[in-house]
Amino acid sequence: MHFGKTAGIKAIFPVIIFLLFSETIFAQKIVRYDLYVKDTTVNFSGKPKRAIAVNGQIPMPTLTFTEGDTAEIYVHNELNEETSLHWHGLFLPNKYDGVPNLTQMPIKPHTTHLYRFAIIQNGTHWYHSHTELQEQIGMYGSMILNKNKEPDIPTVPIVLSEWTDLNPKNVHRMLHNASDWFAIQKGTTQSYSEAIQQGYFKTKVANEFKRMTAMDVSDVYYNKFLINGKNESQLPQFKPGQKVRLRISNGGASTYFWLTYAGGKMTVVANDGNDVEPVEVDRLIIAVSETYDVIVSIPQINPGSAPVSYEFLVTSEDRTKSASLYLGEGVKQLASPLPRLKYFEGMKMMNGMMKMNGDLDDMGMNMSLNQMDMNVVMYPEITGPPAGNKIKETAKPAEMKGMEGMKMDDNKKPMESGHADHNMYNSNALSSITTLNYAMLKSPVNTSLPRNAPVKELRFVLTGNMNRYVWSMDNKVVSERDKILIKKGENVRMVIYNNSMMRHPMHLHGHDFRVLNGQGINAPLKNIIDVMPMETDTLEFAATESGDWFFHCHILYHMMSGMGAVFSYENSPANPEIPNPRLAQRRLFADDRAFHFMAENDFATNGNDGEAMLQNTRWSIGTEWRLGYNDHHGYEVETHVGRYLGKMQWLMPFIGFDWRYRKMDMDEVETNLFGQRNTKDKRSILSAGVNYTLPMLVTAQAEIFTDGIVRFQLERMDIPVSKRLRMNLMVNTDKEYMAAIKYIFTRNAGVTAHYDSDMGFGVGLTLNY
Amino acid sequence: MKSIKILMAAVLLLSSILLKAEIKNISTDNVKIAGSCALCKEGIETAAFEKNISKASWDKDTKMAQVTYDNKKTSIDAVLKKVALAGYDNDRYLAPDDAYGKLEDCCKYERAVKKDAVAQKKMPEHQHGAMASTDKDAAADPLKPVLDAYYAVKDALVNSDGNAASTNATSLVKAIKAVKMDQLASEQHMIWMKVMKDLDFDADHIAETKDTGHQRDHFSSLSDNMYKVIKSGKPSETVYYQHCPMAKEGKGANWLSQIPAIKNPYYGAQMLNCGKTTETIK
């Protein structure tokens, strides 16, 4: 980690001298790093798995520069695949921004690429691969840009990250196929039996009525969380009474982290590489890709007594697991672990906020800047322990009692009751725990934009669909929208509203924006803003650069699904790193156009029953089959090619092809409910139809075949009966019906018992991919 | 006979299976774990137990536990961390304050290292402002200790902590008695003479009970009298006079605070920031 810098400086010494002679402009120090990107095997969870290490380490080495230096970073790609590196939060020439197929072509396997730019800012930043899902498996590291004169206080760069034993490509595929395996691993299935046990049956029904599946604060189950690549570690060099500055970057691909400290309050002094007025908090959440500088102190001890080390606890937002760093030496003082979330309370809250058409309704609360965290209803440390079935009435969460009290008072003091609504989700008002929010950040300097510049206002609505894992802005993915043109010299103002059910850390490349948070001319500068569901945030920045800059959600799987846009400066000179812009654009768009494959087959006693599907943002190609073991049971294959319409994608018109063969006894002819006859003996026919998702997540399907036969079908798949038990129901106008119950053993296997009007009762092993 | 043999064989086989289900790769460590009673023993052993992976046997007198664990699946550190998270300080880990706080009363063992650390930790935070200003302002404002003790009672009520309110009220009684009246300005002196008895009365009652409901009743009149006294002089630090219209079943109640933000002592977490500052006394 250190060799790169010192050795690099020595190696580059002749170059410096050369440069001094040739060009006096480059009188600053050149700092060179050589990064060797290589495949490696890691073992974070007990199983050896593939990862990518740079210079043999995960996280990647900490790169340290001083404001005024010139960075020369040689990336040696020793992988058998492409790569790239993005310098997160840095102001640099567009061609060194490191977005493959946008600001440069990918770094080909076994080639070297040079990033060379002047360091014109200071602060805590980080860097990561912007190629596919490489960031998930090790390609993240700290990038510390020091001021010429840093405050004299010991400093520790910290990168937070997470590890999954699954190949991230598989994670991405599973997310797109609505696999609930992660929920099973996390224990967050929110099935009907759990709902009944905890007294939330109505809530669960209301939730499904509004066409929502189980709610969660994060999508992926992780095996381990890491602080600088370790789940637990200790820094014994710090002594009682000492203060330490932690320069924290969240290099996780999709995890928000709660930061807490066992030794007292933490003082936040910088955010996203920009200083803020110090603010003392008990805890803060760090969004994916944000950075915070936090000062903590190691408490004093009585003279003569043994030293104590204090836990800096990093807990994933879903609170499944945590990572610890102990500051100081001696016996370890633990921080209180964060209690499990009350998911059904969250579900109840979501039900209240969700309109039937899938839009969110903030009930006039004008939410912004993380000040009102709706998830507070799920935090036992603030709204009380979970209400059990029996004691539910007496032990309602505190804020609800407050609400009722307010309601009784309504006629007398309407004003006060508005006040309570406002407080209902404000964690700082509900408890003595101080949680950081963006309104508390204040820049120590005047950050106002140049006056008299023309203002361009852009509005974005963050949109998404959890069931199909489609994430977009204004219901358009990257490949579906044109570049957003901006002009050098104008002030760009962005108003972002989150109409989706997840929070999104939106990141703008190459610029810091002001967050209009009520601090006037001291509005803080950031390059990531976390927008919670229903929040509206206003940002502004001065357009001073040129070229193409990516603006996207930094949750890796959301970005790869197309949640982003490109800001493009009008009349920029051509980027020499992009020799063929059309090819580059096609490859950029390929990310969110990719199809995801899934397949499932039930090897049952009465036949084979299964389906395979290829889906992307808008298209679905699916085949279902029912193959009996004899001619009498018949064989049947239905293929549908459809396109999802609308933001919520409840409607899917399709064309289909139906083939079936079955040997009937003499004189046996089936009629459907409409009196239409159908031999079903041998049929090979085209069809057209439409799928529509009804409340309770029932799929209604109407289909007309070229022989004039009409079929109407209702189907509900994967009713979560208990943690691992799923039920499927189907009935149609051909007088066919099916009921199945499946027990999920592992990610890829389960046991199914089903009854089918054609094939009778069967039990079988279900394998799915 | 034959069937008995078969049965015995079966029992043998079964027991061997059962034995196999015991902890493998055994390591045993003797460690010190703090605790005080039989309840603690149960708590410690439950926290350390994980089927086929770890278990502990703790002795109340020696405070020593024998921890047996599967060294391939876990470590002594991991076991002791769980014990600490359940509230019991040990060789490697100290319990979080709230885990210790949740222990049964009989189990609240004396915290050796921790106590010092906490005292130290709280000192700079809590008394920083207070201490620094007492040194300087004690002479200037003889009511300062009373006000500080009053704030301590208020903060305890904000946290709905009846025990702390009672303890702090005891200090308040002492502080009230310790005021040197001759150092008060004449106007303030007069008012102090008028309300001193009532202040003492309310503070006494808060100290006597641990029921926050009863304490809050007295706190309301205590606050009104405090307001009269403080307003008649010039406090060394800004005092915020705050009002919640809903306290006392809609009658409303007031309190004094050292901070402008609302932290309501009449409701605690239920409605922590109902209210507003009605007057700022400088």
TrEMBL record, chain A:
Sequence intervals crossing the membrane: none
UniProt xrefs under InterPro entries: Cu-oxidase-like_N, Cu-oxidase_2nd, Cu-oxidase_C, Cu-oxidase_fam, Cu_oxidase_CS, Cu_oxidase_Cu_BS, Cupredoxin, CuRO_2_CopA
Keyword Oxidoreductase among record annotations: yes
Domain Plastocyanin-like: residue ranges: 37-149, 219-303, 456-570
GO terms assigned for molecular function: copper ion binding; oxidoreductase activity
Pfam family for this entry, one: Cu-oxidase
CDD domains: CuRO_2_CopA, CuRO_3_CopA
Keywords: Copper, Metal-binding, Oxidoreductase
PANTHER family, per database record: FI03373P-RELATED, MULTI-COPPER OXIDASE
Protein name, as recorded: Copper oxidase
UniProtKB/TrEMBL annotation, chain B:
One of the Pfam families matching this protein, by short name: DUF3347
Keyword vocabulary terms for this entry: Signal
Residue stretches making up the DUF3347 domain: 146-237
Domain of life: Bacteria
Signal sequence residues: 1-21
Gene3D superfamilies, A to Z: 3.30.70.100
GO molecular function annotation: metal ion binding
Protein's name according to its UniProt entry: DUF3347 domain-containing protein
